[in-house]
Amino acid sequence: MTKPWYEDWFADERYLALYRHRNNEEALYALDLIEKATEIEKDSPILDLACGAGRHSINLAKRGYTNITAIDLSPTLIREAKKTADAEGVKINFEQQDMRSFEGKYELIMNLFTSFGYFEQDEENEGVILRVGKSLKSGGYFILDFFNSGMICGNINPHDERFLPSGERVEQFRKIKNGRIEKKILIHSGNATSEFHESVRLFEFQDFEKMFANAGIAIKEKFGDYFGKPFESGSSPRLILVGKKDE
C-alpha cells in the first residue's frame, strides 16, 4: 500500500533542504504576534502541533517558556528538531505523533505555517480541530496559521525550478484540482529522478469558522500576515486565526 504523501515526503532529508528559506526571522515575527494575542504565562502548557523541524517551539523556549510539547509525524523532522534544541540549549518535549490522536491538556495549541488540510477526507481534517477543542483548557488559545486560499488560487505558479545545496535540480508543478492545491516535486540527481507530492485542502475562513464553532472555540481575531495586519481575502498572504476555548 502506498504511503500518504506527507509520510513519504516529510521523511526525506531533501524536504528540509528545499524549504531552508523558512528562516528564523519569520518565525520570530509569528511568535511576537502570538504573544501579543494570547498573553500566555511562561510556565503554561503549550503544544506545537505538527511542529516540523521545531523552529517555532525552539524560539519560544529561548524566550523563557518552560512547558512545551511539540509533535510531528515525521521521524526525520523530529530528529532534526531535537538536534537543534540540544544545540540551542533548550528543553522541549519532542514526540513523534499523529496530529489526529494526540493527548494532553494545554493552555495554548499552535498549528503554524499551513500544517493543516493534508488529509483527503474533510472529516479527518475537522477531527484535528475537534481534538484541539477537547485538549484546550477552559479559556485556552488555539492559533491556526494557514495560507490564504483566495490568494493561492489567484496567483498560482504552475512551474518553477531551483537547485538544492547538493546541486540536485528540483522542478515543482502546481495545479488546483478538486478543491486542493496539488504539487508534484521532481528531484533530478544525475540520471536519477525522485518524485514527491504535496496536496493541501483549500479551506477558506468560512470553513474554519464552522470547524472552530463545532469544537467550542470562538475566533477572537484574524490576521493577514505575521505583522498583525487585518485579513483581506483578496490580498493577504496568510490567514492567521486566534481562537479561544469557551470558558
Could you give the topology of this structure?
Layout: H1 5-10, H2 13-18, H3 24-38, E1 46-49, H4 55-62, E2 68-72, H5 75-88, E3 93-96, E4 106-111, H6 122-135, E5 136-147, H7 149-154, E6 159-163, E7 169-177, E8 180-189, E9 192-201, H8 205-214, E10 217-223, E11 238-245
Parallel strand pairs: 1-2, 1-4, 2-3, 4-5
Antiparallel strand pairs: 5-11, 6-7, 7-8, 8-9, 10-11
Helix pairs in contact: 3-4
Describe the overall structure.
This protein has 247 residues and is α/β, with parallel strands linked by helices. It folds into two domains: 5-148 and 203-245, Rossmann fold (3-Layer(aba) Sandwich); 152-198, no CATH class. The protein has eight helices and eleven strands. The chain has helices at 5-10, 13-18, 24-38, 55-62, 75-88, 122-135, 149-154, 205-214, and strands spanning 46-49, 68-72, 93-96, 106-111, 136-147, 159-163, 169-177, 180-189, 192-201, 217-223, 238-245. The strands form two sheets. It has a seven-stranded mixed sheet, with helices on both faces. Strands 6-7-8-9 form a four-stranded antiparallel sheet. Helix 6 (122-135) links the parallel strand 4 and strand 5. The longest helix is centred in the N-terminal third of the chain and has 15 residues, at 24-38.
